[in-house]
Specification:
Blueprint lengths: L9 H9 L6 E4 L1 H7 L6 E6 L3 H12 L3 E5 L4 E5 L6 E6 L5 H6 L9 E3 L5 E2 L4 H7 L1 E2 L4 H6 L3 H12 L2 E2 L1 H10 L8 H13 L3 H10 L2 H5 L1 H4 L14 H17 L1 H5 L3 H8 L2 E3 L2 E2 H11 L4 H4 L1 E2 L5 E2 L3 H15 L4 H13 L2 H5 L7 H11 L3 H13 L7 H24 L8 H8 L5 H16 L5 H14 L3
Parallel strand pairs: 2-5, 8-9
Antiparallel strand pairs: 1-2, 1-6, 3-4, 4-5, 6-7, 10-11, 12-13
Helix pairs in contact: 1-3, 7-9, 7-10, 13-16, 13-22, 16-19, 16-22, 18-19, 21-25, 22-23, 25-26
């Protein structure tokens, strides 16, 4: 799509028809930028020389959806269409003219307007030329002074659009980055999500680190720099973490290569909605970024000088949950990423004991549920990013085991854990015991026995439980 195609875009036609005869209005910001880049138009931003609430309600009536306020400070409103396929954000003109409004925006690529009624683009700051060059330019120090979130937004836009800041913008961004502690956690988290999920996430994180943005919003990640690891690794913890994310992205993009016939089922699980507007696969990227987050806190040294990180998985779970709590993520997101961090080593511990017994597979699934699919993928990415001396055979063995465990995990997820053929209250009566922890332990042992094929019916289940108690002297 190009600027000339703005007139034919369905959301814009709907807005233009709704506002015919109304106050002067301009398409601004992202909608113009995305059209110039040939990106699809999903949302529409307009600035009006009138009352945003009145205009928004007028648009909402025309497109069949609701209208609601977004920001009291800027007086902005949003209208949604009936099917929720697009949004129209309406803000009051900031200044007396559209040129004054554009001068108060963040970056030149967002400071381009087109009159809703038609006409040439209004581009007083050279935003379209910057798009042609692939350049991000901030509209001076004032842009960062007015909204301290904008350094993070710059990094996110660079990652989403494949743009690069020029030298002066990099310097201004680095100067403004420390103020990223000021915006609300919700706003920071919203930008972080988009950064981590962007097509250029790896490049965006590199830029964020170089400009001091990462140190301001995720200092724990920045602290991984310079933490050297054992001979099994070829990178420090920070570079390893970024490579894990890279390997995860590669895995997800080419699942058939790594998992063959399992790929379609894995892809379906990763596409399931999880929380905070993310799918399970998207949230998994946060697991990659935070899986080794506690290594600086748990670093020790062996007598021979080799580093250790004993307990970094369990300590990492607590730290990852704390980071996401600070960012005001949902409880479900915290639980998901915390579980990934806690169990990311589980598969690796099993590699030296191949082939795994049915009991070992059951223990793995029970420990990692409900992230058994995702943590298996994370473990593969982690192992592929651990390429120290002589590691190739172990990486191959790890991936072979992962495929075996993935088959079991997919079946477990589809069918659930095995059903114990006797209820807890029935077992308690048969064994003349009271409900309590001992009964719970027996039922857990029975589930494992059913999974391994040792128990298949009610009588066998009762007999198995009775033998367990007898062996325990009860």
């Amino acid at each position: 799509m190009t600027l000339s195609a703005l007139e034919s875009a369905q959301p814009i036609r709907a807005v233009r028809d709704a506002l015919a005869g109304g106050p002067a209005a301009w398409l601004v910001g992202g909608v113009v930028r995305d059209a110039a880049l040939g990106r699809p138009i999903v949302d529409v931003d307009i600035a009006v020389a009138g009352d945003p609430e009145e205009v928004s309600r007028r648009v909402a009536r025309a497109i069949g959806g609701p209208a609601f306020g977004l920001s009291e400070a800027f007086g902005s409103w949003r209208a949604l269409d009936r099917e929720r396929t697009f949004a129209v954000d309406v803000s009051a003109l900031q200044g007396e003219t559209i040129e004054e409004d554009l001068a108060r925006r963040d970056f030149t690529v967002n400071a381009v307007a087109v009159a809703l009624a038609g006409g040439a683009e209004i581009d007083p700051h050279g935003g379209l030329a910057d798009l042609e060059r692939g350049t991000l330019r901030v509209l001076g120090p004032r842009a960062y002074a007015e909204d301290p979130l904008r350094p993070l937004r710059l990094v996110r836009l660079a990652a989403e659009l494949g743009l690069a800041p020029d030298g002066p913008t990099e310097r201004l961004t680095a100067q403004a980055a420390p103020r990223l502690i000021e915006p609300s956690s919700e706003r920071v988290y919203a930008e972080l999500r988009r950064l981590v999920l962007a097509p250029g996430a790896l490049e965006g994180l590199e830029l964020a680190g170089r400009l001091g943005v990462l140190a301001a919003v995720l200092p724990e990640l920045e602290d991984l720099h310079g933490i050297e690891q054992s001979r099994f690794h070829h990178l420090d913890v920070y570079r390893h973490t970024i490579e894990v994310l890279q390997r995860l992205i590669e895995l997800e993009a080419d699942l058939p290569r790594f998992f063959g016939d399992q790929a379609e089922a894995i892809r379906a699980v990763l596409a399931e909605p999880l929380a905070d507007g993310m799918t399970r696969g998207q949230a998994l990227r946060f697991g990659a970024l935070l899986h080794d987050i506690a290594k600086p806190l748990t670093r020790g040294t062996r007598p021979d000088g080799r580093p250790t990180f004993i307990g970094h998985d369990s300590a990492g779970q607590e730290l990852a949950v704390g980071i996401l709590t600070r960012l005001r993520s949902s409880e479900r997101m915290r639980s998901f990423v915390g579980a990934l961090t806690r169990h990311h080593l589980a598969l690796g511990f099993m590699v030296r004991h191949r082939p795994p017994s049915a009991g070992a597979i059951h223990a793995y699934l029970r420990a990692t549920e409900p992230v058994e699919i995702e943590v298996t993928l994370l473990s593969c990415a982690d192992r592929m990013a651990t390429r120290g001396e002589g590691q190739d055979p172990w990486i191959a063995a790890h991936l072979d085991l992962a495929r075996e465990l993935m088959a079991a995990a997919l079946a477990w997820r589809a069918e659930g854990p095995p059903r114990v053929p006797v209820r807890g209250d029935e077992l308690a009566r048969e064994l003349e015991m009271e409900p309590g922890p001992e009964l719970g332990e027996l039922l857990a042992r029975l589930e494992k026995a059913v999974y391994t094929g040792e128990v298949s019916g009610r009588d066998q289940a009762v007999g198995f439980a009775r033998r367990v108690r007898q062996n325990q002297g009860r």
